[in-house]
Amino acid sequence: MKIVAISGSPRNGNTMFALKSIRDNNPGIDFRFISLNEGNLGMCRGCYLCVRKGEDKCPLNDDRDEILDAIMDADGLILASPVYAHMVSSLMKNFIDRLSYLAHRPCFFDKFAMAMTTYSGYGTEEATKYLQKMLAAFGFSLAPSLELKCTPGTKSDKAEALNTRKALDAFDKLVERISRGERDKPSLKMLIPFGVFKYVSEIGRKEMTADYEYYKNKGDYYYEVKVPFVKKVIARKVLKKITAGITG
């Protein structure tokens, strides 16, 4: 089994300590670290070319595709960040910004992921929710998240042992999900965005060429799956209301 852990910490601190604890206690797993602080990942310019015309049109030539290849080659992903000002770190936010086109054209439906945050006081709920939301939007099936409290300036054996145990338990759940291989079933929270993106791609095909090519041959969902009739009906009704004011 291959796992990629991406750390959004600007230092080799609590986040990396937790990830290394998981690796060291699971010697039978091929575990790869990617530290955003050490790589070459330019700041997103907000040009929107990746969304409109395709990710290959991004003007930045850096490590983005290498990181994506590593994720694609793995069975599971841990997306880890410290909590700064009630949100993920700037490194992690930029990484997600650089992949924003995947919210339009998700591709990780056969992959599993876990969101992980380290925090000292408040804000972990917002940061974790954001990571989970974006992972789901990119297509990942999610294992339960992991939140580790790390008091700044102090370290105790008891606190570290507790965090290690929590980290290992959470990782076991990720491994279990990967082993079962059961993808998340399409929910209304995914069916409705799918319908919106498909609709917008059709009416904006001249401008949103990448989205149009992605959606033009798709049916009820991103991939072939049986969507319950009731969900279809509800999704179509909601979609009709959302798109009523959208014109090409």
Walk me through the structure.
There is one protein chain. With 248 residues, the protein is α/β, with parallel strands linked by helices. It has helices at 14-24, 49-52, 64-73, 90-98, 101-104, 124-137, 157-180, 188-203, 209-215, 229-243; strands at 2-7, 30-35, 76-84, 87-88, 112-119, 141-142, 146-149. Strands 1, 2, 3, 4, 5, 6 and 7 form a seven-stranded mixed β-sheet that branches. Strand 1 (2-7), helix 1 and strand 2 form a beta-alpha-beta unit. Helix 1 packs across helix 7 and helix 8 packs across helix 9 (209-215). The mean pLDDT is 93.
- Evaluate the radius of gyration: 19 Å
* Structure annotation, total helices: 10
- Strand proportion: 5-15%
Low-confidence stretches: none
Terminus-to-terminus distance: 46 Å
Shape: globular
For the biggest sheet, the summary is: 7 strands, mixed
The residue fraction in helices comes out at 40-55%
Q: What's the order of the H and E elements?
A: EHEHHEEHHEHEEHHHH
Give the mean pLDDT.
93
Structural class: alpha/beta
Strand element count: 7
List keywords for this structure.
globular, 248 residues, 7-stranded mixed sheet, 10 helices, 46% helix, alpha/beta, 7 strands
Give a quick precis of the structure.
The protein is built from 10 helices and 7 strands. With 248 residues, the protein is α/β, with parallel strands linked by helices.
Blueprint of the fold:
Blueprint (H helix, E strand, L loop, with lengths): L1 E6 L6 H11 L5 E6 L13 H4 L11 H10 L2 E9 L2 E2 L1 H9 L2 H4 L7 E8 L4 H14 L3 E2 L3 E4 L7 H24 L7 H16 L5 H7 L13 H15 L5
Parallel strand pairs: 1-2, 1-3, 3-5, 5-6, 5-7
Antiparallel strand pairs: 3-4
Helix pairs in contact: 1-7, 8-9, 8-10
